[in-house]
Amino acid sequence: MRRFVFLFVCVLVVSGCHNSADKKAQPATQSINYSSVEIPAFDADSAYSFVAAQVACGYRTPGSRGQRVCADYLVRQMRRWCDTVVVQDFPAVLWDGTEVRGKNIIATVYAREGSPEGGRVLLGAHWDSRMWADHDPDEANHRKPIDGANDGASGVGVLMELARAISSDRLSVPIDFVFFDVEDQGVPEWAEVYADDSWCKGSQYWSNHPHVPFYNATFGILLDMVGTEAPRYTKEQFSRNYASGILDKVWRVADACGYGRMFENSSTDPILDDHYYVNKLAQIPMIDIVQNTPGSNFFKYWHTTGDSMEHVEKNSLRAVGTVLLKTLYGDYGQKR
Question: Fewer Cβ in 10 A, N or C end of the chain?
Answer without folding.
Answer: C
